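Dear colleagues,

As part of the handover before I leave the project, I'm documenting each prediction I ran so the next person doesn't have to rerun anything. This entry is a single chain, and its sequence is reproduced below.
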Amino acid sequence: MRHLPFTLTLAALALLTVAGCGGSKDVVTVDGEAITMEEFNQYIATKRSVRIVASNGQVGDANVSETLGFQALQEMATQKIVMHMAADEGLQPSESEVEAEIKFKTALNPNYLTGLKGMGFTMGQIRNDVAYQLCEERLLTRGIDVKMDEVDRLIADNPDQFMEPATVDLYQILALTTDRKDQVDKALATGEQFKSVAQKFNQDAGGERLQLQSAALQEPLKSLITATAVGAMTDWINVGNGVKKFYIEGRTEAKPMNMTKERREYLRRQLALSYGRQANDLTKKIVDRLRSSKVVVSDDEGVLKDMWDKFEDRLEKTMGTPPGSTGADTETPADTETPDGG
């Protein structure tokens, strides 16, 4: 098998870096003191924790098993491997096919592009990720043909699985100190609207407005939200690092999902992917290709180079899941999809 040389450097790992910016460019200044792009890139590459949103809407931190920089390195290398494999098999998508897929995803979720751009992703990153997803999907589903009749039978036989869940729209205020709680209470007591107070005083990094699935609510929040009428606010409730108060903006009941032609096509492709994962051991093929490929991490990135050398040693000893391969495009039609990499 031929070797596929490519070089990955730390500069490629900073997904939020503005294209064309030099390493010395200032990202931000704090009281006149600059944080340079080089410092920013280094911080991202070695960051050991991430901020997550739990199913109950709570925001917290979680430690990562490896630095974000090395995770990005693994994922980007794996994506290159998958795309090279697809190209070798004549399965690489054309530019027009990538654009058609973006339109398909937007039909599934009208906020698809808006959500990604709002997180800082460029159209170049989005197109690259869509191309990667198509490559992975085509490698998995080659030779598998799922007819739309099977999709229609699946929907008819499992109506409960094709329901839009009940949701609750609410505003929240997190107060981390007694003083902040008193400020909120005073503002609400004067008749100021909850939404306005939330914009001023909420200390939750996840924002003041939420939409939560009713079934995902956990106690004691579930009882609190359920007992509060639309247009009313809850009492304060203790959370891990402070207290919270909510305003119930509205509720929607569960209802059958409108199975548009795009959703039916999405489901057909998901069935094909499910069959493909059973029939094709793509994980093993990717690991084998990683072993045989020549991956050169720049000597200028000593820490990442050492990490990659150790990773290659592990590849020689195990057949573990390749990094960055989570299965092609498994989001539900309502989700906002985040690219796996740049």
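The longest strand covers residues 242-252. The two ends are 27 Å apart (CA to CA).

All the best with the project,
I.
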